[in-house]
Design a protein that fits this description.
By secondary structure, the chain is α+β, with helices and mostly antiparallel strands. The protein is built from 17 helices and 22 strands.
């Protein structure tokens, strides 16, 4: 059955934002901390109470979905991430990322615990759902790839590489958008293989202990799954779709006064906060209609999430909160952050026939190998250049013909063994001819086995569903029906909210008709109190924003002070221990790399100096050496005093030339030229 073509929505859709609040920790319970977060999971409302001012009204926020401390992992996945995973299998791009203060359960939300199974998070559950969705398809081939990276101190690292601390570069082109050059990617055929990829990458991820979290993530991690599918449409044409799923676990925002970070941990926290601040600036720019420039290039994180924020992606943001009173400022900041993200509009579309689809390359290679094997088996393989061993003639034989030739060779060997009156020279010649033919047969057999093994390996990398046509059709209809019901439920919610607002307006208008001055006075007093409450809330909001701004300003100033101290230390070292002329040489060769946001020192030019050091004219060695040293080396002496060459055998950089050749000059005035004996 040909799948029903899906059309992408032309209208933009907003980023879906959900909020999850963890339970009180054991330490918070022992310290008798107060819970300041209240939630209504039915209406999606959150109220935040100010612990320092009990008279202040709780601050209300509304999101697409909220999850309290009693929410289990399965329900969170089904209502938040599962629709995104379904869309990715259909060919859309999707992103799920967790944001919040350090210690609020972001990694628990994304990864969870492996045992027991019900504690697993969004990432491992997505693995299972992807292959369950593939299993119920019919007449489709899938190629699934996985990669894993982290952004540590603004350096992109490949967690699946043999050397995970190597820095990778970000590149951008029209077709692929922003991508990581030389990022390792593995083809996976099942849930177990994908779990192994995740566990292998987790071993290399940067984590560390702080006062707020024993296993705090010190980097942003992105686990990417690319699902390419090939299906035959009703007109007989084959089309490829490619969906990309980004599962992002952001490092938590933190304050040094609470985490107690010092040294390397403080440096990590500074980089984390700067990248999260850049992410906040991008979100603010996207929801501000007056802003035309979006600062994606301010950090590596925002560049990699560029398509997820305002681009061709279905995106879900999970904002994680801490419920305790001492986290009031951070919780308020997270809620405001998430509230702004609700207004980001993306334009997701199905990725049809991408030019860089690996599935197309696999299919073309499989067809080539199949045609080659079929041609060899039928004896129709193209003739190769003639060789002394007759390999081209063997290559054109079918498998049946090969068996017949092998049988004839065996008969010839038997006859040769029975022949008694044959000369030795003729016998040797006949045996050599038989051996050549046997070698050609064996070589051809090995080549065909190699092609068959290669074909089997490539076919095994492709995953396909095993459902019959009726079951696949039923599953597609159920999925389409679920999406329609979800959309209708959202529209019904909007309609009810609109009706409620209209009834409130009608009720307010009806109250405008009064039978006495007392009723009018009471009604206007009530309205005035309501307006006064709104005014007080707005005024308190302004104060909170000003306080938050001052805190961020102070944190940035502290970062500047720390960097200034480090700069002064480096200047002290350079000014006292590096010669000025050497420093000037480095400065002349240093160039700012806008892409990598760092200075790079260019290799020295070889102009004006020989490309290599001169070698010894006597021995041909790399360095001049004495007769005693040469004799000692011939005798195998290991004494380093006799080693005239560089002991570790390295080519050294040639220094820039600072002298010039002597000129021929008549110094004595008698017409005789003084010839130089040495050229510097």
């Amino acid at each position: 059955m040909a799948p029903v073509p899906l059309t992408s929505k032309k209208d933009p859709e907003c980023v879906k934002v959900v909020v999850r609040c963890r339970p009180m920790s054991r330490k918070e319970v022992e310290d008798q901390r107060i819970r300041i977060v209240e939630m209504d999971t039915k209406t999606g409302e959150v109220w935040l109470k100010n612990p320092e001012d009990t008279r202040e009204q709780p601050k209300p926020f509304t999101f697409d979905q909220v999850y309290d401390h009693a929410t289990d992992q399965q329900f969170l996945f089904e209502t938040t991430a599962r629709p995104i995973v379904d869309s990715v299998v259909q060919g859309y791009n999707g992103t799920v990322f967790a944001y919040g203060q350090t210690g609020t359960g972001k990694t628990h939300t994304m990864e969870g615990l492996w045992e027991p199974a019900e504690m697993r998070g969004i990432i491992p559950r997505s693995f299972c759902h992807i292959f369950e969705s593939i299993e119920v398809t019919h007449d489709q081939n899938f190629l699934v790839r996985a990669s894993y990276l982290e952004i540590y101190n603004e350096e992109v690292r490949d967690l699946l590489s043999k050397d995970p601390k190597n820095k990778l570069e970000l590149k951008e082109d029209v077709e692929r958008g922003v991508y990581v050059k030389d990022l390792t990617s593995y083809v996976v055929k099942g849930v177990t293989e994908m779990e192994n990829v995740l566990l292998a990458g987790k071993k290399n991820r940067s984590v560390g202990a702080t006062l707020m979290n024993q296993d705090s993530s010190r980097s942003h991690s992105i686990f990417t799954i690319i699902i390419e599918s090939s299906a035959t449409h009703a007109d007989g044409s084959k089309h490829i779709r490619a969906g990309k799923l980004n599962l992002v676990d952001l490092a938590g925002s933190e304050r040094q006064s609470k985490t107690g970070a010092t040294g390397e941990r403080l440096k990590e926290a500074t980089k984390i906060n700067l990248s999260l601040s850049a992410l906040g600036n991008v979100i603010s720019a996207l929801v501000d209609s007056k802003t035309s420039h979006v600062p994606y290039r301010d950090s590596k994180l925002t560049r990699l999430l560029q398509d997820s924020l305002g681009g061709n992606t279905k995106t879900v943001m999970v904002a994680n909160l801490g419920p305790a009173d001492y986290n009031y400022d951070e919780t308020l900041s997270t809620l405001r952050y998430a509230n702004r993200a609700k207004n980001i509009k993306n334009k997701p579309r199905i990725n049809e026939d991408p030019k860089d689809a690996m599935l197309r390359e696999f299919q073309e290679e499989i067809l080539r190998l199949k045609s080659l094997l079929e041609a060899q088996q039928s004896g129709e393989a193209p003739a190769a250049p003639q060789s002394s061993h007759g390999s081209s003639a063997v290559r054109q034989m079918s498998n049946h013909q090969l068996d017949e030739v092998k049988s004839k060779l065996q008969q010839q060997k038997d006859e040769l063994a029975r022949a008694e009156n044959m000369r030795q020279e003729e016998r040797d010649k006949a045996e050599a001819e038989i051996r050549r033919k046997e070698e050609a047969l064996a070589k051809e057999k090995r080549e065909r086995e190699r092609l068959a093994t290669q074909l089997k390996a490539m076919e095994e990398k492709l995953v396909s569903g095993h459902a019959d046509e009726e079951m696949a059709k039923k599953k597609e209809q159920e999925l389409a029906q679920a999406q329609v019901e979800l959309e209708e439920r959202r529209r019904e919610q909007e309609r009810l909210n609109k009706q409620l607002r209209e009834k409130e307006e009608i009720s307010a208008a009806a109250e405008e008709k009064f039978s006495s001055i007392q009723e009018e006075c009471a009604a206007k007093t009530k309205k005035l109190k309501k307006l006064w409450t709104r005014y007080e809330q707005a005024k308190q909001e302004v104060k909170d924003i000003e306080r938050e701004f001052l805190q961020e300003k102070e944190e940035l100033l502290e970062t500047i002070r720390e960097q200034d101290r480090q700069l002064k230390l480096l200047n002290l070292i350079v000014n006292n221990f590096v010669p000025p002329e050497e420093r000037q040489k480095v400065e002349r060769r240093a160039a700012w790399d806008e892409e990598g946001k760092e200075y790079r020192v260019e290799a020295p030019s070889s102009a004006g100096a020989s490309a290599k050091r001169p070698v010894s004219a006597v021995t041909g060695a790399k360095r001049p050496s004495s007769a005693v040293a040469r004799a000692a080396n011939r005798l195998g002496s290991e004494n380093p005093r006799f080693k005239g060459e560089n002991i570790i055998q390295l080519e050294l950089d040639m220094p820039e030339r600072t002298t010039r050749d002597y000129e021929e000059r008549d110094l004595l005035g008698d017409g005789l030229l003084l010839l130089p004996l040495l050229l510097a």
